[in-house]
Write a structure and sequence with these properties.
heterodimer; A: 112 residues; Arc Repressor Mutant, subunit A; three-stranded antiparallel sheet; B: alpha+beta; globular
């Protein structure tokens, strides 16, 4: 089972976190799991890097957090998007799509 | 703006720091456990599952640290660092620090001082409960003409008390003076005569004892008095057993029933005793507006409503009371009540002047900030190299900007602290400068509001002058300058632009202030040029002497005693003239007025008889103060002692009534229906009684002793002011001689209101002189700062272009050419400033139009002279450093590089 390993582009982690939270509130571990699943395990998070990112996003008021109990009745901190976070996600997605399309086009050009 | 929001969020997270720190541990633990569980489910043995979980997470402590960094108030820690760094680098540049801090201190101090006055006088509510509901009651009447409104009379007060539906409390008050005679020395004290409603309206209670009741106001009840705290302390040493003691006021015993609290301040009055106003409705008539009305509005009632409500009571009042002797009661139908907020009444028209001053001083502060910005810019230029290196070593833009701001902040606070000291010193000067012109001076203090204002001012200025260098040097161009070898010659033009703009702004603002103070100077000169109606007032000594009924009973004897005093005063060496009057010209609040009937124009034929000011005088009074006799003659002692019905009128009254001063002689006038006609024997020059900035009011002079005047059988002045013309006026020597002369006739009479006529005259100019002094000071500061600004820019240009100058000189440029080059730059900048300043001045001086006299806000003389003067000063300021350019030795300059 050889899998290509994707290093996260700088700055994309925040976007991925926002994306992961788009549908529902989740705790930190849940977010790493979600991202790995969605990327079919291409994107392997150094899980620790997630937390500074979460705190950063919370400080910027893009996400908010609250303590809840999990199904296994453990206390965990759940993060969810703020309205500002949703807006930010939209702009970043649009930006990302523009950039990646452009990059793909460049790469698609065959050498003369 | 983003960093402000950022730091706010970080600051806010400070309060949650414990919760987050604790939560972080728990959260990571939870994460590891979840991962371990997953690994277990995948079939790993427990130890391995946990190990793998940790591996996958990465360095726990490291991430914790960087997570903490995200919320920990890094900025605060960094800021402390920045602050320490700022202090250290300021200490290393003591001259810069001193100059910048002092400049700021000047600006902040002056602004704070003036704000303190504005706050104390205009903004702060009066020191009474719910003071917005307090109103003053005044009255106007058509007859009064353009004169100021008058107060209230007792019959009207009683009518209002019964009829009004607008007031919670209603009272009247007046100021007076009485003799207290039971001590060792007889003394004259100031009294406040009040009805019970007055202090009830204010919501104040005596500190000891009780307030006046209705009984105290009824005639025939025991006479009572309330002491002011100061008098209680001065005369009775705060004797706790004061209640019930008797004080002989005007030789009649009064029982002390209370003492007012120490902090009690009744408007601008400074009484010693509070006496009840006694009203006997049986003796009251219409008229006699000698009291001030004060009321507290009922909830929900406005001053306008109250005015309309009182207006309805006027006809009732006219019908209910007997008319004033000799006056047709219909005259009183025209009386119109005027209800105004008490504060507005008290503050009067100094509001505009104070706001102009506030704006002026604000401009000085902006100029001071511009100067400091210039200094900071210079310093940043000098440290360009250092900043560039630090930027190259990885200091972020924000970090560098913060450090520069921190320095400005420290400077701002330093300047603010020094400024507060200056302000408190300046307030002392202000209260000694303008005691006559400005109300509520006693309420002016450096209170918390002022401190907050000063702090805000310091921080605001710091941001103002601190953000300019940040904008100039916070940029990414820093890296470039390293390449330029630090000579900084390539981009110097651009870097100068900021400083040039600052200089233009400074010159423009300085011009505005100079124009403003120029207009005030013109105003002051114009006022001084108006002949007040008397001459050389500094050599006229005034003292007031009151003869109580206990001392001299008989009215005729009063005049005899006064004449004896005059005779003695006349023998004092150096005294050239001496006389007395019932009230002093130009001394506000010392006059009365009445209707004047003409024999040759019956009342009603040309409208109602006009209300006129009048003044009682003794023979020789006009000569003593220097009022010229226009026609006819002065009063004589024969007139007075023979009760001859005579009068003297002012020139403008004579012209108004009879067209010509000479035509007035022999005409007859009187003050009431039942009085004898009195012949006009003289016409004298006009006296500017309302101040020289107003038209001189027309006035009638009556002899100091008359028969059948205003319903009184014999009318004599018991309180008179002696006017003594002498070169020694105002000196202790003369005063001692005057005291001896008076005491030689009547031993127990105190001298009060000791002053010269010059002081009275000066006081009438007090508001203008105060505004002049303040504006001139502000303009002087602005000019100085502006000159320093120009000088600094040129000097800096010379210093930076040493190399160029060296080369030019070496290539044969003449000294003159070089000088012209630099002076021209200074003049170009100033010219730009003057142009902007003229435009601003035209717009801004309109605001001070109401302060001006004898000139207009667009006075051409000022608008020519001030720019010319400013330009020549600017030329000088650029010539001095330009001359230095020519002394540069080319060899030295080139080698220095």
């Amino acid at each position: 089972m050889t899998k290509e390993r994707g290093d996260l582009l700088q700055g994309t982690l925040d976007m991925l976190v926002l994306k992961a939270l788009q549908l529902e509130a989740m705790h930190g571990w849940g977010i790493t799991e979600r991202i790995e699943q969605w990327s079919e395990h291409v994107l392997q998070l150094g899980q620790g890097t997630l937390y500074p990112a979460l705190y950063r996003l919370e400080r910027q008021e893009l996400i908010r957090s609250e303590w809840r109990t999990t199904e296994n009745s453990r206390r965990a901190r759940y993060y969810s998007l703020t309205r500002q976070g949703r807006r930010q996600l939209e702009t970043e997605l649009a930006q990302w799509q523009r950039t990646s399309r452009a990059v793909n086009q460049v790469l698609a050009v065959t050498a003369p | 703006m983003r960093w402000i929001r950022e730091s706010w969020l970080r600051l806010r997270s400070l309060t949650r720091i414990d919760g987050i720190e604790h939560g972080l541990d728990e959260e990571i633990l939870f994460h590891i456990e979840q991962q371990t569980d997953k690994n277990l489910r995948a079939g790993l043995p427990p130890d391995e599952a946990r190990r793998q979980a940790y591996v996958k997470f990465g360095g726990v402590e490291q991430f914790k640290e960087s997570a903490r960094d995200e919320f920990r108030p890094v900025l605060i820690q960094d800021s402390l660092l920045d602050l320490r760094y700022a202090l250290r680098s300021l200490r290393r540049a003591p001259v810069f620090t001193l100059v910048a801090a002092l400049t700021l201190a000047l600006g902040i101090g002056a602004t704070t001082a003036v704000f303190t006055v504005v706050h104390g006088v205009l903004i702060k509510p009066l020191p009474f409960r719910d003071s917005d509901a307090l109103v003053s009651l005044k009255h106007t009447s058509k007859d009064v003409g353009g004169g100021p409104p008058v107060g209230i009379c007792l019959s009207l007060f009683l009518t209002y008390a019964r009829e009004n539906r607008s007031f919670e409390q209603l009272g009247v008050w007046s100021r007076g003076s009485e003799h207290v005679t039971d001590g060792v020395l007889p003394e004259e004290v100031s009294t406040l005569n009040v009805s019970a409603g007055t202090l009830r309206a204010l919501g104040t209670q005596p500190a000891v004892g009780r307030w006046f009741s209705q009984d105290d106001q009824a005639p025939g009840s025991p006479e009572t008095v309330i002491l002011m705290d100061g008098y209680w302390a001065r005369r009775f040493g705060r004797d706790p057993a004061i209640l019930g003691r008797e004080v002989a006021v005007d030789s009649r015993p009064r029982v002390v029933i209370g003492v007012m609290p120490a902090g009690f301040q009744f408007l601008d009055e400074a009484p010693d005793l509070v006496l009840p106003v006694r009203t006997d409705p049986k003796t009251l008539t219409l008229g006699g507006f000698n009291y001030e009305g004060l009321a507290r509005l009922a909830p929900g009632v406005t001053a306008e409503h109250a005015g309309a409500d009182l207006g309805r009571a006027i006809p009732l009042w006219v019908e209910a009371w007997p008319s004033f002797p000799g006056i047709d009661r219909n005259e009183f139908r025209q009386v119109t009540p005027l209800v105004r907020p008490l504060k507005q009444e008290l503050v009067g028209n100094v509001g505009r002047m104070l706001w102009v001053l506030m704006g002026t001083i604000g401009i000085v502060l902006v100029i001071a900030c511009a100067n400091v910005a210039n200094l900071v810019l210079l310093r940043a230029q000098d440290r360009h190299q250092e900043l560039a290196i630090r930027a190259a070593l990885g200091a972020g833009r924000g970090r560098l900007a913060r450090q520069m701001l921190a320095e400005s902040l420290v400077l701002g606070l330093l300047g603010g602290g020094l400024g507060l000291l200056l302000a408190s010193a300046g307030l002392g000067v202000i209260s000694s400068l303008g005691p006559a012109g400005i109300p509520r001076l006693r309420e002016i203090t450096l209170d918390p509001t002022v401190l907050v204002f000063a702090l805000g001012l310091s921080l605001g200025s710091a941001l103002l002058f601190g953000s300019i260098p940040v904008a100039r040097f916070g940029g990414r161009r820093l890296a470039l300058s390293l390449q330029a070898g630090g000579r900084g010659s390539s981009d110097s033009r651009e870097r100068h632009r900021a400083r040039h703009v600052l200089v233009v702004v400074q010159v423009a603002l300085a011009l505005v202030l100079l124009v403003g103070s120029g207009l005030m100077v013109r105003t002051f000169l114009a006022l001084r040029a108006v002949p007040p109606g008397f001459t050389d007032p500094d050599h006229v000594q005034l003292v007031r002497v009151t003869l109580s009924e206990a001392q001299v009973g008989d009215a005729e004897r009063v005049l005899r005693v006064q004449r004896d005093m005059l005779d003695r005063l006349a023998t004092i060496p150096g005294v050239t003239d001496v006389s007395f009057t019932g009230n002093v010209p130009m001394a506000a609040g010392e006059r009365s007025r009445s209707t004047i009937y003409r024999e040759d124009a019956p009342a009603g034929s040309d409208g109602s008889p006009p209300m006129r000011w009048f003044r009682y005088v003794a023979p020789g009074f006009f000569r003593t103060i220097g009022t010229p006799l226009v026609a006819g003659r002065d009063f004589t002692w024969v007139d007075l002692e023979g009760y001859r019905p005579v009068a003297v009128v002012s020139e403008n009254l004579a012209r108004e009534l009879w067209r010509d001063p000479r035509a007035a002689l022999g005409k007859r006038i009187r003050e009431g229906d039942g009085s004898p006609w009195r012949e006009v024997v003289g016409v004298v020059g006009d006296v500017h009684d309302d101040g020289v900035h107003r038209e001189a009011p027309s006035i009638v002079y009556w002899p100091a002793l008359m028969e059948t005047f205003q319903g009184q059988e014999v009318n004599v002045r018991r309180a008179v002011t002696f006017a003594i013309r002498s070169g020694g006026a105002g000196s202790e020597t003369l005063l001692a001689q005057v005291r001896d002369a008076i005491a030689g006739v009547e031993p127990d009479v105190p001298l009060t209101r000791v002053r010269t006529l010059g002081e009275v005259y000066g006081r009438s100019l007090a508001t203008t002189s105060f505004a002049l002094v303040m504006l001139a000071t502000a303009a002087g500061m602005a000019l100085l700062l502006g000159v320093i600004g120009i000088y600094g820019v040129i000097a800096q240009a010379v210093a930076q272009r040493r190399r160029e100058i060296g080369i030019r000189t070496a290539l044969g440029a003449s000294r003159r050419e070089l000088q012209v080059m630099f002076v021209r730059r200074g003049l170009t900048l100033s010219l730009a400033g003057v142009a902007c300043g003229l435009a601003a001045a035209v717009a801004l001086t309109r605001l001070m139009a109401s302060l001006l006299f004898g000139t207009s806000p667009l006075d051409p003389v000022i608008y020519v002279l001030v720019p010319l003067g400013l330009m020549s000063v600017a030329a000088l300021a650029s010539y001095v450093p330009a001359r230095r350019a020519t002394r540069i030795d080319p060899v030295q300059a080139l080698r220095g590089e």
